[in-house]
Amino acid sequence: MEDVNQIALFPLGRIVMTKGVHLAISADEMLTALLRHAQGDWGDVCDEDWKTNEESLVRGFRLFSVYHASDKTKFWIITEADRSYTTILLPEEY
């Protein structure tokens, strides 16, 4: 797999995951979602959040994506505004 940071539209910073994601989402599904997030595919966000993310790329705000694992488990990926961290988490862990 390619180095995510080499193909990312923005710095991901330190990539971390919550315990819930570790237990519920496969590594392959996390990596696939992380690549999509890094390339500006925000997954299953609403149109308003998609537009907000596009603006955030330019203005340096937080980036938020929503994905679903093959078993329909929803998970989020959030890159902080300062690009120091990208967190993969379940919505109930927010």
TrEMBL record:
<protein>
    <recommendedName>
        <fullName>Plasmid related protein</fullName>
    </recommendedName>
</protein>
